[in-house]
TrEMBL record:
It is an enzyme of class 3 (hydrolase). Its EC number is 3.4.14.4. Belongs to the peptidase M49 family. One of its GO terms (cellular component) is cytoplasm. Keywords: Aminopeptidase, Cytoplasm, Hydrolase, Metal-binding, Metalloprotease, Protease, Zinc. InterPro entries: Peptidase_M49. This is dipeptidyl-peptidase III.
Amino acid sequence: MSAKFTQLVENAQHLLAHLPWPAEYEKDTFLRPDFTSLDVLGFGGSGIPAGINIPNYDDIRQAEGFKNVSLGNVLTSGYKDSKITFLLEEDKALYTKYKLSSFEVQVGLHELLGHGSGKLFMEDSDGKLNFDVDSTTNPVTKGKVTSWYKPGETWDSKFSSVASTYEECRAECVGIYLCLLSDVLKIFGHTDDTADDIIYINWLNMVRAGLLALEFYSQESGKWKQAHMNARFVILRVLLEAGQGLVSVKKIEGEDGKPDLVIVLDRAKIISVGKPAIGNFLRKLQVYKSTADVEAARQMYSYYSDVNDQDEPKFLHLRSIVMDRKQPRKLLVQQHTYIENGKVQLKTYEATPTGLIQSFIDRFPSSDIQDMVCSLMDKERPYF
């Protein structure tokens, strides 16, 4: 897998030129990252990602560079569906066969060319701009660029609460947009009919993920609880809005007699309808980001993030069906290492809730927590 990502890095400059924004909106020089595929023994957090782009500070990515890591064994173990919901029967076999392969392509493009692409228009403390304001055109308004990041402003400080999900949406869009390139698919070893299937399943997985994302929307607060899921729902809405029969969500009766849903993607229209729809949306995402146009960005992103029953399909109604069909959350039990008699030992656990809890107890013993709290408080160890 590492060899594929190395080739992706080597071809990045060529592939970036295919993104749907003018050259002025891309970094002057692509800062070649390190891209490594790792098998992880343990990941200290509540969730385990399939890929990571660090650091999560766009101003540092712009000037210093970034690193990418793909967690290979997470891809193979954490992204298998025990039950495939919301797909046509004829799609399920193809989905099962190509989901991991297509997701590998998506992760590589998302992390490297998604998070790693795009230029921020900035003014330094001396009043110097990092772009030519006289010759650079805003491809959305067709006029001159009128806004940029002032001294001391960053992507996170300007876009604040929407920054994370907006950026994840941009990276996901880059992934499904660039996976259409034969040069990309060849890097991952997909040619001929296999390449077409990889494209179809990658797009199908994205629109299905947009429907499943409704699990992470809080109807009570009217807010999204997870950045990536918000992003995928936005993409689903963009593709539904494209019309022409590209994507549809149909209500059916399930085998159990209860309401069910299927999502249908017309693979023959991915290039003719889907590509321009995502291209136009992705261009706006980048232009608003580059020019620090927070108002336009929030207005657009809020529109596509809205979950309501005002228009078809009635998303709040769909959400009720999605919640009724919700599958149990996957729990990944991780191994643990410890030293015994001067040698490193490996401890494994049962794939059960009890095993998961025990693995956390062993990895984060209470004495470690007490020592950490005491060091922060600079006090004697409390009795707890």
